[in-house]
Every structure is written in C-alpha cells, then in structure tokens.
Amino acid sequence: MFSYKLSCMGPAVLLSLTMFGVACSDQGDEPTEQMTDTALVPVSGKADTAYYSNLATELEGEFSAIMRLDFSDLDLEARQVERDRLDNNRFALRQLAGLQLKLAKTQLNDEKLHLNLAADSVTIDRIELQDTVIEVEYRITVETLVTKKELRSEGIEPEDLIDTTFRVKVAADPRDLFERVGSSCAHGFDSGALRESNFFYYFDPSQEDCTLEMAPLAEFRVRSLLPEKDTFPEYDRLVADGRIDAAVVFGAAEDGPVHGGDWGVMMWRTFEVNLRIDGFKAAEESAVGTRYERTRAGLLQAITVISPYDLEALGDQGSELFARLLKTNEILFYNGHSFYGSLDVLGKAENYPEDMYQILFMNSCWSYEYYTRQVAKARASDADPSGWALVDVVNNTTYAYFVQMEASSRTLLFNLLAGAENLGISDDGRRFSWQNIIATLNQNAKGECPREDPTIDCRQYRPRAAHEMYGVSGVTDNKYQPN
Prior knowledge:
Elements: E1 18-20, E2 56-70, H1 76-87, H2 90-102, H3 105-110, E3 114-115, E4 122-130, E5 133-147, H4 148-153, E6 165-167, H5 177-181, H6 199-202, E7 218-225, H7 235-239, E8 243-251, H8 263-277, E9 281-282, E10 290-296, E11 299-306, H9 308-314, H10 318-328, E12 331-335, E13 358-363, H11 367-379, E14 391-396, H12 405-422, H13 434-444, E15 470-473
Parallel strand pairs: 8-11, 8-12, 12-13, 13-14
Antiparallel strand pairs: 1-8, 2-5, 2-7, 3-5, 4-5, 6-7, 9-10, 10-11, 14-15
Helix pairs in contact: 8-12, 12-13
C-alpha cells in the first residue's frame, strides 16, 4: 500500500536520495491552452499583510536560559582555561545555545509556537566557573510563528500573546546527549533511528527514566508582533537581464534504489508533464538533469529540473550539484527531506552569488524552523547585516508530504513567472504579491484525500491538521512596487 511519505527525516547522505524529479511523458511540441489558471492568484487579489502567510503571524521574542557545562574531567587550572576560552569565543557559545534552544522545540510546538531554531545573535549575561561546572546565562532574540487556526481554537488572538512567558525543560548541558543518555530522554523515534543529530526532535524530559539535569532557567517570552507591510517579489531584479534562470530539484521519498513507484519519482514525472503543457520545451542537454525553456512576454524562462535518478547517479556529489545550482539560479526549489536541519550547503556564504536577488523554496518539514535563519546568516554582509536584501525564502511550517510537492512547486513557479511577465499586476487585475502567492499556495495545498482509491491511506493525508504549510521570510524590506 502506498502512503504519502513525510519529508521530515531521511538518510544522512545529503541530497543523495531526497529530491523531486521531472517526468519523461511526451505531450507534444506545441503548447496547449494554459490549464493552470486555478494555480494562479485570483483576479481580485488583496495586498500583503502580517507575516507573509495568509494563515499565520510572526512574532518576535526572547529565549532565556542557563547552561551548566560539566568539566569535571578537567583539573581546576584547565577548567579556568576553558572558562576563559568560552568567554572569548562567542561562536562556540552560540553553537551551544543553539543546541539548548532546539531542545525546546516540541514543548513550544505544544504551546502553538513554532520557533525559528537557528541561534543568531546571543547576548551573554554571565559566565562563571562554579566548582566543576561552567555556568552560562544568556538570551537570544528569535522569531516564532503562531497560526491563526491554532490560536482561535483556544480563543486567543496573536496580540494576546505579547509579554507572555513560556517555561520549558531543556538539558542543562546540551552536549552529546545521545551518547550520554541514549533513548532514556526521548520518544517517538523508529527503532535504530535515534542519533545525536536528531535527538532534539524526539527529546522528552518527562520520560520516567530520564535522569538528565535540567537547566535552572529556560523560557521564551513573546515581545512583539512583527510589522505588517505590503510586499512583492523583486520582479524588476528578476527580469533586468531579460531572462529568468530557475532550478527545481526533486528527490526520492524512500531509502534504497530509486524506482518508478516512489512518490518523488511520480511527482517529478507530473511536474515535467505540466511544464510541457504550459509551453516549455526541452532545450540543450544539461550536465545533470533536463533543461526546459520558453519565451513569454519577451522574457526567456529557463528551468533546470533534477530528478531522483539524477541524484542517485551523483551519490555523495549531490551536495556539489546543489551548491552549483544555488550559485547560478535566481529561483531554486528544494523538495525533499529536511535531515533535521543539517543541509549545511545553505549555511556557506561562498555558495551564493555575490549580487543576485534570489527566491528559494525549502519544501520540507519544518523548514521555517531549520533553514530560514541559516540562509539569512550566510547572506549577511557589512552592507546588509540582516541578510535579507538579496533573498526571499518560502518555507514550510509543518510536515511536508511528497504527494503535494509537484502541486506546490508548480503553483509557486507559475505565479512567480506570471508576476515577472506582468511586473506584478496583470491586465486582468491579478496582483502577484507575496501575500496572494502564499495564500494561493496554501489554498491549493488543501486537496482532499481521494478515498475512492483503495491504495491510499487517508490517515496519513493530514498536512494541515495542525496549522498552515507555507509562508515566506525576508520580504519585509522588499523595495519593488508595481506602478
């Protein structure tokens, strides 16, 4: 029986198994009448508001905690040296704070808060040696999403959360937890799947056998709603050279050899069919994958599509391919497993073009929490400390299902292309703003489970059971507005 495979997890080999691909079904060379109007923003679209999802609001808050790092294996002099080293190494402290922050994920999710898990700037209030322990008290400014559906089910408005504090339990010493306690402080994992890199995802301090010392302080306080502003993609930048270069990567949903019944393969084939129906034709051979092109409104649109078979053939070189695509494309879609936030290609500044505006789509489980800050930190510079001047990141705030990846990729891509062709507003009144695009993306993700198909397990068809799927980050200060 087929199931709608989740994209949260997956093997540790980066990009080797997990992305969408494109199909080989021949639809002929002549473009037919466009059949994708239902995927485009409505004619009477409204402007952007709030967090850049129609279903959620972004809030700013502060995570405060105390770490108690055990150095009992060192003598007194060595402990003092270690204390001084940490005091002068804010990068190391930020990494440790990030480990502790991740342990709060599940508990804050239960409170309807979906925290960005990348520790950025950490303020150290105190660092001191106490016998065999180095105690560090710190604060992190961090964003969180609250979804309107979840809050309203509790009779709460986003404004009601301001100045609310949520206490959580996290390990006092967040290092090497799996090595130290194994599975005694975790639950919900498949047998043999628990490891250090994903321990935070299954962390549960309420387990009866959990003997970890918990931090004396760990809490998240909501401080403010982030400002509302109407925004558009930077269409003027996208079309400045008369062309748009995009890449869409699809990967396999399952481990092992790629096969035709894998959901990633089926989505890849469907995506390729829809490209051809919408007037794209296969162009010259690409080194990897297939390149499609069309010219519309005087704009050359070139789409490189990477399939699960392409990734399987590359093996461990999949990371190098993704880095090349990131360096050379204005639009890049990633469809696949999140690897618990360990796709480090996105965290390296050298993988990005120096002066190119980009739109990235991280279509995997919890990508808002895992990858939004990673991209911003990599793109930050002296001229752009926030890292958002040259990139917008469409992200996912819940589980991602492979069965939806073709529709979401097609919806987002075709709206961005239509917006570029029309410089934001079409003659029939469609406003291709970020809020309209995200609203359409979420609306089109609401498909009902086809219960008449006996091969489909509808119990797994619950992508919006908790909250919405898609939003976009990095667009608050976008400059482009249609005339």
